[in-house]
Batch of 4 targets.
Target 1
Amino acid sequence: MAVYKLEDLARRAGVSPRTVRYYVQRGLVPAPAFRGPDTAYGEEHLAALLAVKRLQEDFWPLDAIAGVLAGRSIDELHRIGEGTLQPRRPSAPNASEPEPAPAPKKRGSTREREAPREEPAIARSKGERVELAPGLELWIDETARDATKGLVDEILRLAREQRTKKESGR
């Protein structure tokens, strides 16, 4: 079984050591047993990094990647990293289902009772942000219809084709 220092692991995965630490913090890559400067990473860490990298190339957001990689075997991670296993994209939650009401907040001081907080005037929508290229993002609102989601798939396919052409030097 292979054992890597942080710098070696990062180099093999084609990312920076800082990125490895960030992915561990986000839960995309399992945390190694900490041993100070002697902390070592194994094959499962490399497989997870390569799987994350592959899914990012297919424009997956990190939150979706974390969800789809959780609980995967090393073999599955290798197959995702190689592109021979393509996980299913999670779909947006059903927008027609009402969200649960927030629990009532307890008020502390008299001052708080006199001046309640105002709700922000702008409603925040939920959805998925996809980076198409550096500086270019696509926002897909969770309420998007199936026809719109089909358009999103077409945009992602075209973006992948362009990236492939660019990488092959055409």
Target 2
Amino acid sequence: MKKLLLIFSVVFIASTAMFGQAGSIVGFWLTEDKDSQIEIYRVPGNKFNGRIVWLEEPLNEQGRPKVDDKNPDRALRTRPTLGIEILKDFTFSASDQEWADGTIYDPKSGRTYNAFMRLDGNNTLRLKGFVLGMRFLGRESVWMRDPEKR
């Protein structure tokens, strides 16, 4: 009985630590150009998504809110850029110390890429979007944690 209790305790502590690590990505992040802020949050299924919550320039030349005009889906081209979910379905891999198997949407081009993310310290997030399932064919972006909700 003591062995069973010990095994249960070790498994519980290990899973709690891993679950805590997975959530360390939650928060507000400034993009590489510091022209937008992304909120990363947990969704059902222990996945992580992220949406645009602040834009340095939220209005277009006509003084109207910027829209997702490059989206390949014509029906989505009039939705406001502010609020778009650009990160979807990332899962944490404790063995690789990364959030993977997700996608990142680039509203500037209208393209969606497979992606993974890694924390570099507590306040630097390295994201890499790639194509054709080949991680080496892609672009890396570095975001900084932003403690302010803008």
Target 3
Amino acid sequence: MVIKSPDQNPAFFCDSHIHTRLCGHAVGEMEEYVQAAIRKGLKKIIFLEHMEQGIRHTPGKTWLSADDFDIYFSEGQRLQAAYKDQIIIGLGVECGYNPDTHDILQARLAERRWDQIGISCHFLKIDGMADHLNMFSSKESNILIARQVGAETILDRYFITLTEAVRSLPGTMLCHLDAALRYLPEISFTESHYVLIDTLLQAVSTKGMAVEINSSGFAIRREQFPNRRILAMAQSYNIPFIFGSDAHKPEDVGRYFDLIASLPLSEVYP
């Protein structure tokens, strides 16, 4: 089924991946994101804030502490009540996987009731480095390290780590599947990578998870995350899709959803 118009599917009226200033690398209060979504005609949003564990990262953290999540839920529940007649507001988490802290992540996820659990992997431990490598950073220092280590090697580990995360964590959605090293202009996926991606998608299918169509890719590479080949692979396993803007400022809520309208999508979660 090709979705030609947002009016044909309610998924276009739900943004399932929104951040706030609490993560340390976004701007805007939660209420500003809610108000932006209402102005854009969305019927539902899900905040999906960052959870990481055991990551060494300089400078500063880019995720929420336990105390931050207390604030997040308190404010989120206030907004759910205040805007209940205008929009549905979900409170979710984007859990970045670190194999060294698997048990702690499991325990933290079990402590709260989430409306969505997104699975991702932003950081890798690299031999000889004090800090983890941020594979999603646009900083030249991170790009230099990625080139020194080798993009193919990093992507191998990235897809293998994601597969482990999907199999072992209680996720509901796989976030921005092919976005690692997105700021490396020469990045490309080998056939070996697609074999790993196929294994990853089989794990997603087995767990009954969805794959996110992350519209932030349009601003970075003029194509959504993941690419069309991966979307077709996901369709072959009857994996449903969820739309997310990955908004880090209020005006980015629901961005580029119109460009998703021409994608061949077999099943979409509203």
Target 4
Amino acid sequence: MAKNYFKSYIWLLETLLTQGPQTLKEIKERWRDSIINENNKELAPRTFANHVAAIADIFGIDIVCDRHTNTYYIENMDDIGENRIKEWMLDALCLNSLLNESASLRDRVIFENVPSNHKFLATIIQAIRDSKKLKIRYKSYRSSEEISMTVDPYFLKEFKRRWYLYGFKGDADGLHMMALDRMARVEDLDEGFSLPKEFTVDDYFRGIYGARVYPNMKRELVKLKVYGTQVQYFRSLPLHSSQKEVETDKNHSIFTYFLTPDYDFKQDVLSFGDKVEVLEPKELREEMKGIVKSLSIRYK
């Protein structure tokens, strides 16, 4: 696929997403003024039709014409909202398109760098889409040796500026989590695989806080006491999807969660300093107390 065509697809999607239904004349006028149109070419009806067909094939997004108004619009908008991967991809690509059209903003809109974004991400996404096995050379931080494995790529997850692939290696250990930044090589294979019909990502991560999923992880009720203005931040950006505010006072609020209080959860709670206190369960409170005590010794 030519690079300029891909930019055109994203431009067309971004136009319809932000401007709403458009006539072909309006789309052609916007195209004429777009920075993506480097050669100042007119958007021919046949080219437009090819773009619509390519967008349906690549993104699974249908652009159709309302014959009553002669406007083009995205027909399956509801599907986009229900598909988190598609929604993320469109958000990222459309934002990139917008910034490309506004070159002067490039130094004024700052993103966090995700190193593994550029390592094998496209290859893995394509393998997931086509249900093709991957051959991966991988070196864990816990091992000095690089290993080679064949994986059924189930899904991807971004967490704390790292991308993780979850895949099945054919053993009895279930799904394996692999960080993209620890992959030395990724090759797509001609051999296909079938995702189990009963498998869903939502079920797999139900009650999980971080990226790690271990057998028999214990999900339990966790109660946090949040102080001062930190309460507002918790309300606007919940720590976990199970968050509930069960008590509110002048100086604090109490939030409950049903999740696995794993390493990542403990680290995030500690990052709030004295603004967040673990109340329950008792075992977790004692563990956090021990960590705080060890920290105080470090800083003597």
